[in-house]
Amino acid sequence: MKQMELSGIYFILKIILILPVRTAIYCYNVWYNYSRKITPSFVRRILMREAFLLGDYSTCRIVINPVFEFIDSFFLDTYQEISGYVTEKDHELLRPRLKENSIFLSRENCIRTKYVWYSKPDDFDNARDPILIFSHGGGFAIKLVPLSFNFLNNMSKHFPRMGIIIHDYTVTASKEGEHPLQLLETVLLYNYVTQDLNCEHVILMGESAGGNIVLGTLQFLQQSNRKLPEKAIVLSPWCNPTSDSMDSGIRNSLAYSVNKMMDGLSFEGLDIFTQLLLPQSYVFDDDPMLNVEQNFDSINWTNVLPRTKLLIVYGTDEILQHEIKNFIKKLDSTNSNNFNISYNVFVEENGAHIEPVLNMTLNLEKWSRLPAISKILEFIGSE
Description:
This is Similar to Saccharomyces cerevisiae YGR263C SAY1 Sterol deacetylase. The chain crosses the membrane at residues 12-31. GO terms for molecular function: hydrolase activity. This protein is of the alpha/beta class. It has one domain: 3-Layer(aba) Sandwich (Rossmann fold). The chain has helices spanning 2-17, 19-34, 40-53, 59-72, 88-94, 148-158, 181-196, 209-223, 245-248, 254-262, 267-277, 298-304, 321-332, 341-344, 355-358, 364-369, 371-381, and strands spanning 80-84, 111-119, 130-135, 163-168, 201-207, 231-235, 309-315, 345-348. α2 crosses α3 (40-53), α7 packs across α8 (209-223) and α8 (209-223) crosses α12 (298-304). The longest helix is centred in the N-terminal third of the chain and has 16 residues, at 2-17. The protein is globular, with a radius of gyration of 20 Å.
């Protein structure tokens, strides 16, 4: 315990003393070598990237998550808990991948998850009004980043009739957060929204790791013969979270040599998240619901796409764009009439990882005109 406390203090000192210097150096290098304009948004992405690189495996649990939870409590009501058991059909989908020591071998283990209404009209009509379930990112390990609230607040103002639910899934930084718990918790929440609340017009939205969870959930819902959501939006999805990018040579590519200077994410930082995510009692290597691009399930997606409208958003500054592009190509190869790259994909020029979510524009009219935001709003509002 004392060692953990010292680790936390050491991390905070590095944030205070080292982070500003490293951020200033990187911003200068980008301005000098690449002639990029250094905006507050750009500084913010570099701060985020370098801050995570100053941490280690314990930092998420002992410093970052407690701080984020404390800040989040000022913006959110108390989380509500729901619980349920894995159905026999769901268990049949999981069982082939479960090892002898898996906690999911028994269907008697109750699954619990938390959610909170971020916004909900007083006269919300479950049958008529849309409801958006938001799955945050953070490498599966980090709680909701407080910077997300401006995005969600503007979204609720633009669509005052739309309910917004934030999912507080179990993160891997906690001892209980082994995959595929995050996927099962999302399915549990989706069942609650569609069956208990009887909501008809459901939209799943996820960013980064949350985008991965959404893509996995769509496949799980399809395979378990459930009703799929009307729409799904993934922002900078982490398509291959347990795949080593070193094997594909991405880290040695010319594109990465530029993007690693520009993006708010780094492969070195992702390595920490991957080590926390790697399941100990679950066969994940060829799982299409985890490494959704590398283990692409064309048959499953051929059935998903006609039932759910999908929007994928990413930026040209992203280090993850290689796997996102490959995933898009594979979706396009299904030849679904409900997936067209020109409509279902938006690429933000000079956009970084989850750029739309981290945009801090307060003016609603100006915010709604931003290219990536405009595309998201158009997609949500479409028939």
